[in-house]
Specification:
Elements (H helix, E strand, L loop, with lengths): L11 H11 L13 H6 L4 E3 L2 E8 L13 E5 L2 E5 L4 E4 L5 E3 L6 E4 L3 E7 L5 E8 L6 E7 L6 E8 H22 L1 H4 L21 H9 L1
Antiparallel strand pairs: 1-2, 2-9, 3-4, 3-6, 5-8, 7-10, 8-9, 10-11
The protein binds zinc ion.
């Protein structure tokens, strides 16, 4: 029987730990989902301790600085599956996923992700994205498959822990340049289907062609 269990008294170690915790100066961290500051801060991903958090607002009229409501698509069992929109959706590691009208590629993450869907006023909706802060060695992959037959077309990957979010987005930009700049890369060698262009999570950066692709898939 250890010291803590005998007579309900704390061991010296536990006492020191609890005293230390009670004296911590850690900041309290909260998010107000409706504040303009939060909308800006979390429009990409923002670190919260061991997590990355992102906010995606879906507007009935997407011209009002939001995204058009689309489906969450995943590639499983050699099929593109539209996942029913639920309060909380999980993406296991290494499942290719694509959010229609929000980002125009298949994201393949070594780590798990969680999406929390909320209903706001005036038919607006919000998706809160939560994932682990990129661990050393974790790869993020940006990929495209033929939408007709799932033949793989193109992919780039990045170790986000090494290069940060700036490097993560730079890798995407490089991939978009190759994929959007060459119709032969977007054309399936098996069935000949031409894939729509890629686009980022920043709609205000869209070219005319990327905007058309965002409306499409
Ligand atoms: Zn094909």
């Amino acid at each position: 029987m250890n010291e803590a269990a005998s007579g309900g008294r704390l061991t010296g170690e536990s006492l020191a730990l609890l005293k230390g915790l009670a004296g911590n100066k850690a900041a309290l961290l909260t998010m107000d989902l409706m504040s303009e500051e939060s909308k800006l801060r979390y429009r990409s991903f923002y670190p919260c301790g061991d997590m990355l958090v992102g906010l995606r607002y879906h507007e009935p009229n997407p011209d009002r600085k939001g995204f058009k409501m689309g489906r969450t698509l995943k590639i499983v069992d050699n099929k593109i599956v539209a996942e029913a929109r639920s309060d909380v959706q999980f993406t296991p590691p290494l499942v290719p996923h694509h959010s229609e009208h929000v980002y125009g590629f298949w994201h393949i993450n070594d780590q798990q992700e969680m999406a929390i869907n909320l209903k706001l006023d005036n038919d607006r909706r919000l998706t809160v994205l939560v994932e682990g802060f990129p661990a050393k060695g974790r790869l993020d992959r940006f990929a495209w498959f033929c939408l007709n037959c799932l033949n793989p077309l193109y992919m780039t990957q990045v170790e986000t822990a090494k290069v940060g979010l700036a490097g993560y987005y730079a890798t995407q930009e490089d991939a978009f340049e190759v994929f959007n700049g060459d119709a032969s890369v977007r054309t399936c060698s098996d069935c000949g289907t031409v894939h729509p262009m890629a686009y980022s999570i920043f709609p205000w950066k869209d070219s005319v062609e990327e905007k058309a692709a965002r409306d499409l898939w």
